[in-house]
Amino acid sequence: MNTELKSKLGKLALIRSKPFCYTCYQECPTGVCNKCHSDDLMRVTENGCEYGLDWIVEKILQTELSAVNLSDAFEESVRSTFESETVTVGWMTFDAITVMKDQDPISWRCAQSEYESLEESEGNIFTLDNGSTYYWTHEVEALVEDLD
Ligand SMILES: [Zn+2]
């Protein structure tokens, strides 16, 4: 797991939100509520208020990036390897990708899941929800590149 990138995203979420006292229902820019003196504060953005930063990070990624379509990405990767291969049957010519997908969808799915594991272990794709949604790591890094 890319902990450095995660902590940078946490910083970004801090910058994009403000401390908020839910009891007094007001922003508390200093980090302490000036009415009730609580420092147990939520974070507020234009999307609402909640404890923690993860929800802000998730919203930023959802809003500003496109989730990786792994099925398309896998197909593209296979295509780049077998691009020129075609299969001729009788008078018909098919491209290799179409034939592989149609003739052995199970093998295709296995290869796709191996591709996903490899992309994740190499850090090319990034997830905050255990793989329900992936983003390209380089795009996530671009969001936080001006922070240090
Ligand atoms: Zn308060």
Supply the helix-strand structural class.
Answer: alpha+beta
| Order of strands, widest sheet | 2-1-3-4
How many beta-strand runs?
A: 8
The number of helical elements comes to 6
Uncertain stretches: none
Basic shape = rod-shaped
Gyration radius over CA = 23 Å
pLDDT averaged over residues: 94
The largest sheet, given as strand count, sense and whether it forms a barrel, is: 4 strands, antiparallel
**Number of domains in the coordinates?**
2
Q: What string gives the helices and strands in order? A: HEEEEHHEEHHEEH
- Amino-to-carboxy terminus distance: 19 Å
Bound chemical compounds: zinc ion
Residue share in β-strands: 15-25%
> Portion of residues in helices?
40-55%
Describe what you observe in this structure.
The chain has 148 residues and is an alpha+beta fold. It folds into two domains: 3-64, no CATH class; 70-127, no CATH class. Helices cover 47% and strands 17% of the residues. The protein has helices at 3-15, 54-64, 70-82, 96-103, 105-121, 137-144, and strands at residues 18-21, 26-27, 42-45, 48-50, 86-89, 92-95, 125-126, 135-136. The strands form three sheets. Strands 2-1-3-4 form a four-stranded antiparallel β-sheet, with no helix packed on it. The chain is rod-shaped. The mean pLDDT is 94. The structure holds zinc ion (ZN).
